[in-house]
Structure formats: C-alpha cells, structure tokens
Sequence to fold (282 residues):
Amino acid sequence: MISQSSRDKIVRPIFIVSTPRSGSTLLFETMVAAPDLFSTGRESHGRIERVADFHPGKRGWSSNRLTADDASDAAVETMAQLFYEGLADRDGKLAAGPVRMLEKTPKNALRVPFFAAAWPDSIFVYLYRDPRQSLSSMIEAWASGRFRTYPMLPGWSGYPWSLLLVPGWRQMIGKPLPEVVAHQWAITTNLMLADLEALPAERVRTIWQDDLLANPQVAVEKLARSLDLDWDRQLGLKLPLSKTTVSRPDPEKWRQLAHLIEPVMPIVESADARARAFLERF
Fold:
C-alpha cells in the first residue's frame, strides 16, 4: 500500500494573513479552540525556512516572498511533513490521518500565492487593523528587541531587522524607524491584497480586528461558520492577552506616538484605502 503524503493529509488548511502587529496571534490563539482544527501551536517560521531555498539568506536576502513558482512538489512535501509532525488539536492529540490545519506566521502575508498553489483547497483569512494602531505596535515591536527576525541582515543599519522582510527593504536603509515600518505595512498590504484578489472569492475570508475585540463570541462564531468549523466555546467579553503582547492594547494607544505616526501616514494611505475597499466586498 502506498502511504499518503503529508501534503495530502492536510486538507482545506486555513492561513491567517495580515500586516505585522494586527492581532493575528490573538485570532490564532482563539481559533485553535475549534474542535475540528489542528495546529503546531506556534508560528512556523522555522518549519518553513528550514526547507532548502525558502530562507531569504539562500535567496540573496531578497525578502520573505514566496510565489507559486516556489511550490515544487518536493519542497512542499518537505514543508508539509515538518508541519504535520507538529500538528495537534486543542486537547493536545497529535494528528493521525487527514486533518484541517490552522497556520499563522506573519511572513505568510507575503506567501499567499505559494500556499494557494501548495494547497489548492486552502482558505485565507485576512485580518485588518487600523494602520495607525498597527504602526504604533510595529514601532514598539522593533524598539523592544523581541521581534528580531534577521539581526545580521547584510547591509542593514539601525535597529536590527524585525518582523517580516519585505521586497525593496534595501531602499529603507538609513531611514527613520517610523518610515521603515510604514513602508513595511504598505508593501505588505499591497502585495497581500493583489494576491488575495487573484484568488476565487470563496477562498478568502475577512475579519476586522475591531469586530473581534468588540464582540469576540459573535465574530468568532461567524468566522467559524464561514470556514465550515464547529464552535462550542463560550468566550468572555474580552479576550485574554496574546503571547506576543508588548504592552496592554488600547485603540487609542497609538496617540502616544502620534508625533511619529501622523507624518508617515501618507506612505500608507493608498494601501489602506485599497484594504478598506477590499473588505467592503466581503
């Protein structure tokens, strides 16, 4: 009997995608409580970049971008095996046989066409957060030193490179941190939206972070139904803080850095308008 590939054991996987610091960890940590889902329980940077040629260092430090051209059968099967061996449900039971996987790694916002090709039955959940709030949290993340992804990035100066590595990052060398994160946000948003727009509508879901925070039960139940998932948990009026929280969230917290954020808003405005228009279609 021919054994089933790891790739084929992962059916209708769900990928949460968003700009950095948009609350994707909170959404992930909430959604993994669905009885039908399996996950690795954490971000899968290592599982993906352990595959030959997927690490940006093997790609001339271009970016974290992966496209359908990178989804060779051998590479996808290697990555799927790394995923599958770590999958467990909400009770810690390891995967056995075909399962649905929930995956959330921030860099995947730049990899939508890759995962779409790797699993033609995959679904993408786009989480949107007001860019002013995201930029504030991104500045905080860079400055904290907790989110260094490529601390020895060749040619980079200033704070060690943090969060996802976007195409065109070299053009940001020497720019102030607020400009860096604004370009990070805009580049990620434009690429991600172009990729999501290229997919059939039935493969895309959207959720606003404001809705998730305002009424978690309603927002999560609605999302779960749209993904053909059961939901049997009662959530509180407020969700617990995520593992990656730097400081307690507040929708107005960004105003503490308004003097840094407002001058760079022109960098993100067109991408944000595009994002809001996209969300209105769902």
